[in-house]
Structure formats: C-alpha cells, structure tokens
Amino acid sequence: SAITTVMAAAARFFVRGAQSKLALAGVGPGTQSSFGAALLKLSPGCGSRTNAQRRYAAHFTFQPDPVPTQYGPTQKMNLFQSITSALDNTLASDPTAVIFGEDVAFGGVFRCTVGLRDKYGKDRVFNTPLCEQGIVGFGIGVAVAGAKAIAEIQFADYIFPAFDQIVNEAAKYRYRSGNLFDCGNLTIRAPWGCVGHGSLYHSQSPEAFFAHCPGIKVVIPRGPLQAKGLLLSCIADQNPCIFFEPKILYRAAVEQVPVEPYNIPLSQAEVLQEGSDVTLVAWGTQIHVMREVASMAQEKLGVSCEVIDLQTILPWDIETVCKSVVKTGRLLISHEAPVTGGFAAEISSTVQEECFLNLEAPISRVCGYDTPFPHIFEPFYIPDKWKCFDAIKRMINY
Amino acid sequence: MAAVRSVNKMFGVCFRAARQTAGLTGVRLPGHRAFRVGAVQRQQPFDSSLEKPQFPGASAEFVDQLEFIQPNVISGIPVYRVMDRQGNIINPSQDPQLSKETVLNFYQKMTLLNTMDRILYESQRQGRISFYMTNYGEEGTHIGSAAALDPNDLVFGQYREAGVLMYRGFPLDLFMAQCYANADDLGKGRQMPVHYGSRDLNFVTISSPLATQIPQAAGAAYAVKRENMNRAVICYFGEGAASEGDAHAGFNFSATLECPLIFFCRNNGYAISTPTNEQYRGDGIAARGPGYGMLSIRVDGNDVFAVYNATKEARRRAVAENQPFLIEAMTYRIGHHSTSDDSSAYRSVDEVNYWDKQDHPISRLRHYMMARGWWSEDDERSWRKQSRKTVMEAFERAEKRLKPNPELLFTDVYHEMTPHLDKQRESLWRHVQQYKEHYPLDLYDK
C-alpha cells in the first residue's frame, strides 16, 4: 500500500486540526502558516483558480432514504458513523467479537472504528501487521475457533493478497469439512468504489471476482441506513461475508439511522421506485446515479423507470430482478467496475435465460471501460448519468 | 568481531530456549494468564542528547565499524535429541521417564500408522482409491508431539500428520472412509484422500493449499487466548510450505498478537522433488523464529522423546506466557511425496535406505523398549500380525460401503440451502433421471 496516497486519499476525511502541531516546525502538512502554503502564495496564477485547475464535482447527489420508524430512536449519522454504530452494537452484544486490521486501533483511516478500542479494550479492537493475507487468514482462524471476527481491509484494491484465503479457504471451509468446521463468524469489510481521485488503487470495485466464488456472500450498501442493517446481517450470518463500503459516501451520505441494532435481510434486492418501462439495476454509489437517471428519463423522455438496489451480489436476488423485467421488458445494469466479466454480465445472462420472450430490447450494461481505473480521466471513465440516460434512450427506441 | 558477537547473541536466544526444558522459570498461576495485551515497549520521549539510537523501529546500540552479519549456515542451530540413533538415552535428565504403557502406546500407534500406510498406498496402486500420501519416517514427529498436547488443544495440519489423529483415537474405519470417500466419511466425500478432519478430536480438516493453515492457527490461538481455558493451538507444516507468504504472515501475527501457539515444522528434506538447498538459503526454519521475536528450537524429529519434550515445554510456556513457539523437527521423508510421485527420479535408493535402516523413529523406540525388557521379538511378531489384521478388516469394510448420496454435492456450500443451488440440484436430478444409464448410481447411497 502506498502510504502517501493513503494519506492523500484519507486527508479529505480527516479533521484538519490534527495537523496543526507540525506547523510550528515549518515542516509536514501544517496549516496556512506553513512553508508550502507560503510558497504557493508567491505563484502568480495562485490567487484564483482557472478552469483548468478546477476539481471536478461529484458525479452523483446522495439521495437519503426516509426516516425509518420501525427500529426505534434514530440519530443523524453519515456512512462511517453508521458503520461504527453497527460495530459498537456488535461488540456490546457478543463478548467474543473482535475487530482487527491495519490502523483500526486509532479509529481507522476512514474513522469507522473511532472510540471502539477505548470502549471495549485493546484485546478486542487491535492493529495487525501490514499483511492482508494474514488479516484474512487470522480472521478465518478466529472464526473457526468460535469467535466473531470482523476483519478490515484498508481498501478493496488491496484485498487481492487475501484472495487465496478467501476463495480457497473461507468459502470452502464448511463444504470441504462436511460441516465439521466453518468460518461463518467471519466478516470482511473494505472501502470500495470511486472517490473522485482514487485512481488505479483506491477506486476499485472487485465484487465480480468474488461473485464467482460459491460459499461467500458479497454485500454492498447504498447509504448509512442500509449499511448498518446489512453489516449487522453479515455479522450475524453464518457464512463468511465480504462487505464493501462505498468510500465516496463515508462523509457525503447522511441519514437518520436507528441507534439500536436492526437487520436488513441479505439476498433481497430492494425496489426503490416502481416503474413500467425500464428496469434499472445497480448497487452502492451507482444507485444515486440511477435515481437521478430515472428522474431525467421521466422528465425528458416520459419514460417510467423501476429502480432496483441489488444490495447482495452473491447470492443475488434473481427473482426480484426477473419479476421486474417481465413487467418492463427492458433492463439496464450499471456499475463502475470494468464491463467485461463485470457482475452486470451475470445478471444479463441470467435475465435473458429467464425472461427472453419478455425482452423488448437487448439488455444494456453501462459500466467502466476495460481499463485500469484512471486518475485524471475519471470523469470520462465512470458510468455517469448521461451515459445511462443515453442507454435508456436507445433501449426505448430499439 | 562485532559480527561474531551479534551472531552469538542471535544463537544465544536459541541456546537458551534449548536449555529451558522441564519446569524451570515461568511460574504459572492457575487461572491467571500473563495477559500482555499491547505490551510493546512504550516509546520513551525522544532525547537527542543521549548517544543511544532513538528510532522507534529498533533500539540496539550504535556501531562504527562496517560489518555485515553473517547468516552462518555452516554450524547453525543445534539439534536437540534425547536418544542416540540406537535408542540409548544420552543424558538421563532428559529422559521423560514415561510409563511402559505410554511408550508401548507410542510404539503401537507409530507401527499401526505404518501398516495403514502400506495397505492404503498399495490400494491406490491397485486402483481402489484415487490417491494417497504415506508418512514413512515421520511417525516420530506425529506421535511425540501429539502425546505432549492436551486432547482439547486445536490442531491445524498440512497433510502429513495422520499420526496425530491416530494418536488421538481417530478410528481406522474413519481414516478408510475418508480415503474411500464412502458414505461414512465425516467429510461427506468431498475431498481427496488423506484430507482428514475431526471436530471431536479437535483436528481441523486438512486442505490442499499449503501454509494457509498457518495464519489461521494464529487467529484460532488468539480466540483461544481470550477464552482463557488453558488451551493451546498447534500448527504443523513442512519446510517447503514455510516458504509461502502465509507462513511469514502467521509467524509475524502470532508473535505480534501474543498467541498461545506452537508452530511445528516437519523438515523432511524434500518438497516433492525440491531439496532443502533449493528451498531456502538460511539455516532452515528454526533460524527464522528469532527474526519474528519468537522462541525457537530445532529437534531430532526421529527421536520421539525429543519431540515430546520440546512440544511439552513449548505448550506449557505458550499457554502460561501467551507467546508462540517454533519447533523445527528434522526428519526424512522416506516415502514418495504421494502416489503421484516416483522419488527415484530425484534421489538415490541408497539415500532412502540409509534413513529407513539406520535412523528410523520406529526402530529407535523399539530398541529403547527392548533394552528395558518391555518388548520382545514375539511381541513384535504378534503385534504386526494383529495390526495388519485390524487394518485389513477396516479396509474391507470401507471398500464395500456405498458412496454418499449425490444430493450431498449441493449441501454445506452455505449454512443454509439457497434458492439458486436448490434449482441447480433439481436440474441435476431431472437430468440424471433421464440419462440414468450414463451415471454410476449403483455405487452411491440412495
């Protein structure tokens, strides 16, 4: 993991005050009085930002869910706070539960574990050495020994050293032992998806690699309310689960979230809005893009869209998606991950098998290109609302 | 000079470990564990007026001579043993003085394993089972270490530790059932032969990928530590598997997170065809321990008492002090890697015969027993006959048994049956109904 880029990526999410001590020495990040800031001020072009220097605005607007009434009192929480709340509930209710990974002790690079070590103890919330294969292997062992294991991988982009442990071990533990042993107590969490400047190694959406692995579950929430309920379900689930957290939503997504624990069921897709002409399927951040696309389609084309949040990638809710496509006859699936072999391919293939005669147009996939995730070209790379809108237009006119 | 000093210092750690055998330092208070959580040296405030290094990463002394530390593979870490190759005790204080009953049990378990190996190896040659791996020459490592553990200690193995399971009482019928993948197999017929597992005997099911069990053992030991129930975890692996990244991960995690864990490396000279001089360039596996901050020892794996003593002490201290121990048991793989290997392609028959005839854990223990009048030629003959008979009877029973119901292809993927798997199961069933003459249904349980 490149330390400097982690710091850069995480800087957006850190409270600025923490850096002020270093300013006195004139070195380090510092504040306004730092050497670096002084130098910048000398540069002629520095006063106003020209067009070329403007950082691109986010490609979506987070759309909060309505306040839930069935789970008790709620509190305003952003995504990372809702994760902390879920972890807090878990550590409180299950004395065996432990949370571990790189940098989780001080609160985590995305602040998901803030306060937990002080509250529950150093033996329950602890740092591990910098080794993803070790983190997941260790987590499997904790789970096999009967304790709840919540392993954090710092970025989903760094999950690959643990791929063998996940695919060859965690996923197959129960099956290969004839149910003598299992690691259902294991949940792996990782920040996921584009963040505006993450580039190759801080933006990936690797769910497709894991969708191909029978024995694990893969879950991706669209906001704080879903995240807490889904994470608690993953932790309670008696199978090893991977929970990807859209990092761009950690601060941007704010909702009223129940303080008490609650579960949102796995393998159940959610129909966010009903429609009659096109089914739109997505997960994570892309749901908010799709909701906006649905409004655009209604406004500009008079097209009524049904928006479905898949939520669980594996095992996925085939029934809900097919039921929708039978009704609308058109399907658009969108994800940031590269299109070839991306999860849209699996959905597309299954839907055409089940709903062939209902289809009015070929199934459309609006996804990332088959390139590594680029840095400066991100605005062109991502499956934004215009690409999705255009795909709907073509489907309607097919 | 400085290099020699630092080398000696490094080995000093190991010498000290070797000398700390039966009950010395380390008082164990019943029910109270030395729970050193996060007991990393708290950094003193940095002080540049001191001539001592202030780096957070290491706090050794400064030195002003340029000298690289010699890895010193020539003399290396010494090999601890209790008996010579003829089974005579060298230093009486090291004789664990086990009872006749215990020692006879060691011997019978080692020879029963050997007999089972011979019969199952042959059965693969005859096409009765698909695959097999023997344990020839390494029986001492299994029995000696298994005997030193508590039955509740959790065992993670690689694939050449069947003797551990046998010592704990896994019945011949279940060994055979797994190899035959018949309906009695606890694993429900899903894995290749020798991938044993037993929940009751605390032996985690074997998996083929190498070294994956090493960080898992560290995690299990951590959970076991938190339970505080006087349990340890042992993790077996070969010197080849120790090259995997997972081994490095497991060693580092167990030391950093202070886990009550025994790492037991069977260094048997070969990883399939790869000899140790192509596997590593340092002084074996034991020399890596100090690099992780781990107490380490090298033992004669063909000396069942040496293995027993080292494992016993490592277990006692691992639990009392919450730290991992590394035991490298030197031995020799007398058999081929597996039934898919013919080791004459890469080593001489003379080399194999040396170990079989002149340095074998079974014959060493037999000499020890005979010297005490605990075993005679008659005992040997009748035991061989009896063990062969029991193995053959289990073998015949296993061979006759049907295979598990093919429905078991689809269960245990998840804790619960999922709709998509249920659909696939139904589609297979429908297909097999239609094309039943092409499927060997008569071999399987209904």
Automatic annotation (TrEMBL), chain A:
This is Uncharacterized protein. The lineage of its organism: Eukaryota, Metazoa, Chordata, Craniata, Vertebrata.
From TrEMBL, chain B:
This is Uncharacterized protein.
